[in-house]
Design brief:
The protein is α+β, with helices and mostly antiparallel strands. The protein contains 6 helices and 10 strands, in the order ααααββββββββββαα. The N and C termini lie far apart (68 Å).
Amino acid sequence: MDIVETRPETAEDPPVRLSDMPDWIYLLREYYEMYRLSSAGGSQRIGSHQRTVRERISKIIADDPCILPNEPVTKPVCAHLKRALDQGRLQHTGTVIRSIESIAGQLAWMYGYERLPRHLTKKFAYAEIVSPTGPVVSNRLILGLVLFAPKCVYPAHSHDGITESYFCLSGAVSENDDGVYAPGSLIFNPPGRDHRITVSAREPCLLAYAWTGPEEKLASQTLVFSRSRAREL
């Protein structure tokens, strides 16, 4: 019987880089295009945020950072993911959806809150794409996806020192009851702004998000709901 020798992995093995995982590069390029093609609606502040996101994505790709493979994790809301992806594929966001599908089996969906209201456990989860802890490791920017089930009410919260934007890929949401955001819409939240999200009754909603801010803020965000709004639920 032939004996096949295998070399065990050692500390000297080179890390997996972004350039080794083209599907992740393609997804980052899709994020770049979202923030290039989406309208700022004449707002200089939103336009500046869009440029910052694009510039940091370009630098991340040039950095060729490490990729830390996730152990795939699902949450109950992931039962709605196929529907959200199917619906998103019918929109002009279809190229983004197809890039997400190519890495969907590698995503770790999470809650992020130490104390999550019980009604949210089946209605919400998010997965990071770029963050200080991976999967694409970078301190320049946080990119991710958030999935909401139909009729989800996501309580008011804010982010200290972080500028946040959501890009609607599928479904429809309202933020602070100030209009409805359908696929292709960009939702902008400056640092410290309380925002509450509600989701339509018939369809799930899939959002892509970007956080920009100082490296120390990106690395140390604690997710908490605003107390005054949390008591209302």
